[in-house]
Amino acid sequence: MTPTDPAQFPIVAARALSQRVATADGPLVILSEVELAVKAGETLAITGASGSGKSTLLGLLAGLDQPSSGELFLLGQNLNALDEDARARLRAGRIGFVFQSFQLLPALTALENILLPLELAGRPDARERAAHWLDRVGITARAGHTPRQLSGGEQQRVAIARAFATDPEIVFADEPTGNLDADTGARIIDLLFELNASAHTTLILVTHDDALAARCQRRIHLVAGRMNEVAAA
User: What is residue 216's three-state secondary structure?
Assistant: First the structure.
């Protein structure tokens, strides 16, 4: 059964999802039989110790990688049936990403980093929208600065603006506060959830930060590649 109607099916779903890699000592299991369904508009935290498979799961759910076995559905499409180019087309303009290391293009200014995905999506109002989102994250004064001229918190604000600028249906965030001090991280958390609530976006994030995970409606915990759902507080 292939999801086609967003009102009837999860926006992201994994069925018996497993990921293995070959090593000299035989196959290494990174994820094992993960079952997960995320509804549109939900916020979900993926937690677990280092090496538990958190970032691997996030990459699979976003269609950045292919699983060893199991099925994946994203935005109503069966990812198993799509090649790399088709998965990229599916993500374009509909998926936003926020990374621990910011992943800003070093030769572009803050404004240009936000502008790029809008131009790639063919938005006729790309420059106006980029400026709007730079203002939304509070660093319009830094529009002409390149990433090396920005603090870590400022870089993550640009990355968040870039993620939301195309009006994505889902934002995936991988340790969004991992490279920030506690105070800056707390402000970034507030900003991320404020923007997510106003945009009614589905948010799926990986974190080791309990305070960040607690802000999500749901939380799953990985132990050695196996998933447990943690009851909401």
Answer: coil
What residues contact residue 135 under an 8 Å CB cut-off, 6+ apart? none
The Cα-based distances of 128 to 111, 117, 167 in angstroms read 10, 13, 14
Q: Which residues contact 132 (CB under 8 A, 6 or more apart)?
A: none
- Spatial contact of 152 and 180, defined as CB atoms under 8 Å apart: yes
Give 32-63 pLDDT, tens digit per residue: 999 999 999 999 999 998 888 999 999 999 99
pLDDT digits (tens, 9 = 90+) for 132-165: 999 999 999 999 999 999 999 999 999 999 999 9
Both tokens assigned to 73: 């559905």
Amino acid found at 79: L
Angle at alpha carbon of residue 163, lines to 91 and 118, rounded to 5°: 70
From the centroid of its chain, how far is CA 151? 22
- Give me 133's structure tokens: 């989102």
3 state SS of 175: coil
Report yes or no: 100 and 33 within 8 Å, Cβ to Cβ. no
Quick one: DSSP state of residue 137? T
- 3-state class (DSSP) for residue 132: helix
